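Workshop exercise sheet. Pairs work together: one partner reads the sequence aloud, the other fills in the structure field after running the prediction. Swap roles for the next sheet.
Pair: D.N. / O.F.
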Amino acid sequence: MTKGAVVNATDHRHVTSEGRRAVSNSKFFIINTKLNGGHSDAKYLKLTMDPAEEQAQELEVLESIYPDELTKLSDKQFVINVLLETETERKHRLALHVEYPDTYPEVIPLLKVRIGESLEEDEDDESEDYEDEEEEEDNEADDEHASPVHIPETVEFDSDDLSNLLTKVIEEAEENVGMPSVFALVSVLKDLAESMFIRKCEEAQKLHDEELQRREREEQKKFNGTKVTPQSFEEWRLRFREEMKIDERLEQRAKTANGGKLTGKEIFERGLAGNDDLVEGLENLQV
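Structure field:
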């Protein structure tokens, strides 16, 4: 082979196996050849494949990889439900919605990330788990020492999480412009979502622990009570006597016991006593 010769992208008979590198699913082949002169040369051979044909081939491959997870909406649109590996009884899935622009893969696909739909086997498993949980709750209804809440089971992805994941997936798509990239995007989404789920579990567990500690401190206050001083006790005693109307009740009781007449003390305090009344009142006080 002479320098500058054109090499057919599908014909490798004239290319030594040593140093040959083919980039799978790419628009280019990079072929290193040892030429007669002893120095290396590289040929970048662009594949002349129609975008629609390339899209169809990628979709066919994806359908074979994700036979149950992929839902085809049209020749240019499909959804892949991604099952996340989490340490929870509940199964978490995210859905990657993909739409091919006419010139894909020369441009990035149109992407959306949503909460995935449960597959049939997921629903069966969750139904059994739910029945088991109901039975456990019935058995533990009167048990003060019931098992604590398993925080990871309460964690969900919110709209902000989905938006952040979509941003990362789009960044990955931009780095892969020029080659079919959906499989790589699914892998990136899965890895990022699983890492995010772990972080959310850790944050939720931390908040849960802090709330438990706060409640324990509140409960402890009931046993510790409030430190009492002579001044605080006197203030409390006066408030208590006023709230319970103790002085009024004692006064009423004294009137009842005296036949409705004023006591000597009352006569003296109100300054209503004449000489005779004063003497009688003093005698009553002495008695």
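Discussion prompt: Residues 182-224 form the longest helix (43 residues). What would you look at next?
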